[in-house]
Amino acid sequence: MPVNSFMYVDYHTHPLGHGGGRYTEEELSSFLSSARAQRICEIGFSDHEEFLTGVDETSIAAVRRRFPSLKVRLGLEISYRPGREREIAEIAARHRFDYLIGSVHDLDAWMFDHPAYEMVYRVWDADELYRKYFLVLEKLAMSGLFDIVGHLDVIKVFGYRPAGRIADYAERAIRAVQKANLTVEVNTAGLRKPCSEIYPSRELLERCYELDIPVTVGSDAHTAGDVGRDFAKAYELLFRVGYRKIAVFSQRVRSLISI
Ligand SMILES: [Zn+2]
Ligand SMILES: [Zn+2]
């Protein structure tokens, strides 16, 4: 199958960036123009929850009228930490979200995916670090608060890896994802990071496929130019692993569409 005939969806985008963006019709339109140029048929805005007050549903309604051929969804990416469950449930109730992405961005207040704190990796034993990360991810899955697991193996972002097989570290978390009926996203941002690899790796994606875990796709674009970035690679990977359908969401109800 030629890769350029896939049905593209981008469910992980940040119009508000890291707080510098604005949720205007113009800004959202730049994301949608970029999506249309990449032949994306459905896009979800999934800003970080700390910028939630910047989300404006009026602007979303306006761009839906302006781009009638594109399905536009409202999601949110929430940082999971054990103990935050009640706070997250309150955040989830503030808008009629189509989906919630749960992501682990920090361990014991260390923002391990942030370049400014990369030196902290040196004080960790990689084996312990991966155990800890996937334990928190398992708790994220068991919390029942989310629809999608964000960048499943983001702990590899700077290329620090344990000696053993990552699949062994991730197994319990992936089983918890299956049990919780969650969707895993294939996130192309890893290709733009030092690890130079899609999240999750092919090895972990194959395990998800064996366990019949649904997947969706996201670019993690913080600028319009990154919408749909490297999607040919992501869809080709999915197809090679065996996936023929991907998940989409409306009002937190999942359905599967053929790629
Ligand atoms: Zn994230
Ligand atoms: Zn993100």
From TrEMBL:
InterPro entries, alphabetized: Histidinol_P_phosphatase_HisJ, PHP_dom, Pol/histidinol_Pase-like
Listed GO MF terms: histidinol-phosphatase activity
Pathway of action: Amino-acid biosynthesis; L-histidine biosynthesis; L-histidine from 5-phospho-alpha-D-ribose 1-diphosphate: step 8/9
PHP domain residues: 27-189
GO terms (BP aspect): L-histidine biosynthetic process
Catalytic activity: L-histidinol phosphate + H2O = L-histidinol + phosphate
Coiled-coil ranges from the UniProt annotation: none
GO cellular component terms, semicolon-separated: cytoplasm
Keywords: Amino-acid biosynthesis, Histidine biosynthesis, Hydrolase
Hydrolase as UniProt keyword: yes
Gene3D superfamilies on file: Metal-dependent hydrolases
Keyword Mitochondrion: no
One Pfam family matching this protein: PHP
EC assignment: 3.1.3.15
Family under the similarity heading: Belongs to the PHP hydrolase family. HisK subfamily.
Name of the featured protein: Histidinol-phosphatase
Native source species: Thermacetogenium phaeum (strain ATCC BAA-254 / DSM 26808 / PB)
